What we know:
Blueprint: E1 7-10, E2 15-17, E3 23-25, E4 28-30, E5 36-40, E6 43-44, E7 57-60, E8 68-71, E9 80-86, E10 95-103
Parallel strand pairs: 2-10
Antiparallel strand pairs: 1-4, 3-8, 5-6, 5-9, 7-8, 9-10
Amino acid sequence: LVYGAQYFQERPKDTNVIxxxxxxxxCVIGDRKGLVQxxxxxxSLGFNRTIPGLDRYSITSSHPNEWNLMIVxxxxxxxxxxxxxxxxxxxxxxxxxTATLTVL
Length: 104
């Protein structure tokens, strides 16, 4: 079997959220081979669907290709630039897509 290169089916979009509400930044990946992580202002949030030390943050999905970042009870410190990254693997290059979360 020959598979295509990994690619974004849906990239995260700049999003506004009201303090106390839930924000979801979408990231949907096709033909994924590499590990997926989110970063916040350049700092890794790790490769797991639960994010240690950040109880309000989690990676959610209704489909195996989804790696959506959900932030509940949004606070001013969540106002940041987030990036969904797929690491290179088996000759596929790294993917990265950024979105700004603005907390109002």
